[in-house]
Amino acid sequence: MDSTINNDHNNKAAIFKLAALGVSSLIVQILFWQTSSATLFGNKSLMFWLVPIIIAAAWIVLHTFFIMATYERKWFFILLAAGVISYLIIFPPGAFVWLGIVIFTLLDWAYWGRIKSLEKNQLHFSLRQLFAGGLLVMTNALILLMGFNIYHNTSEDFKNNPGAFYQHLSQSLSAGVPKLSSSLPEKFDPNQTLDEYLTRQFESQDPGFSRAGSFEKSALIQQAGQEFLRQFNLKGSGSDTLAQIVVYSFMEKIQSNADGINRFFPLIFTLTVLALLRTFAFLFNWLTMIFGALLFHPLKYLKFFKISKVQVEVDKLTI
């Protein structure tokens, strides 16, 4: 396509730089696979998601530099194949895990074409315009890849232990009920246990209760608790808070009525996570562009990169 770049690629120094970019990109990509796998399939906190996100931004920068530095597709495909092999080694086997890497590979190939097309259409080299024009493809590739892995993980977890899903949901609802206390009657506190609630009821309605012995009080409260649960068709114990008793019973009814749609829960969860990731994708794009600028200018100053005037062939309509 142009002799200047081909001659540079025959230069040993240029070949070494290209190899360094490729190896660096592959190492960071493998690190991204490992941290993503640990986040998705391990017991990591939500804050740990920041680690693979930052590594992914660094990988896209190195990957983009490698694409811009080479015009021979064979080197790109070698690097792409190495990344796919490392992914298959690190991530657990599964149809959706494999489908994710297939779509990711196709979009990565499209990213190569997008960057090369943007390079041809620029009169002057602009790193910002290259990233701005191509990042959408790579961001969607990563989101879809994570989506297939999230679906695989949640569907397997739900299949093996569906009770854990309802337990987490009930715990979340229990934590939210006390926030509604301001709209409830003044004497009703959802944070109090059933025994505490019944004790207050006895003290306010039966003056003789305070003079009863501890054993008699305990028997009265236990009997009243059983009657309370039976009357309202609830399940629990005297040590459970009123919020927990209500939520547990509520979740039991949901679980019994959701048998026909259980299989859709992993899909709903995955789509929710993908929508959240897509909403904040612009922050990831900004982070990638910042990393790109911070890395490019020092490397250009050290003459690892150089901007050269080259002749470009373009397609033109003729008659």
If you had to describe this structure to a student in words, what would you say it looks like?
- With 319 residues, this protein is mainly alpha-helical.
- The chain folds into two domains: 3-160 and 280-301, no CATH class; 164-263, no CATH class.
- The chain has helices at 3-10, 12-41, 50-69, 73-90, 95-121, 127-160, 162-176, 194-205, 214-231, 242-257, 265-279, 281-301.
- Helix 3 packs across helix 12, helix 6 (127-160) crosses helix 12 and helix 8 (194-205) packs across helix 9 (214-231).
- The longest helix is centred in the middle third of the chain and has 34 residues, at 127-160.
- The protein starts with a helix and ends in an 18-residue tail after the last helix.
- Residues 1-7 and 179-186 have low confidence and may be disordered.
- The chain crosses the membrane at residues 14-34, 46-68, 75-90, 125-151, 267-296.
- Keywords: Membrane, Transmembrane, Transmembrane helix.
Question: What's this, in brief?
Answer:
The chain has 12 helices and no strands. It is mostly helical and 319 residues long.
What fraction of the residues are assigned to beta strands by DSSP?
Answer: under 5%
How many distinct domains?
Answer: 2
- The Cα radius of gyration reads 30 Å
Query: What's the order of the H and E elements?
Result: HHHHHHHHHHHH
**How far from one another are the termini?**
24 Å
Class from helix and strand fractions: mainly alpha
What count of helical segments does DSSP give? 12
Low-confidence stretches: 1-7, 179-186
Shape: elongated
Largest sheet: none
Whole-number average pLDDT? 78
User: What proportion of the residues is helical, as a percent range?
Assistant: over 70%
Tell how many strands the DSSP assignment holds: 0
Transmembrane segments: 14-34, 46-68, 75-90, 125-151, 267-296
Keywords: Membrane, Transmembrane, Transmembrane helix
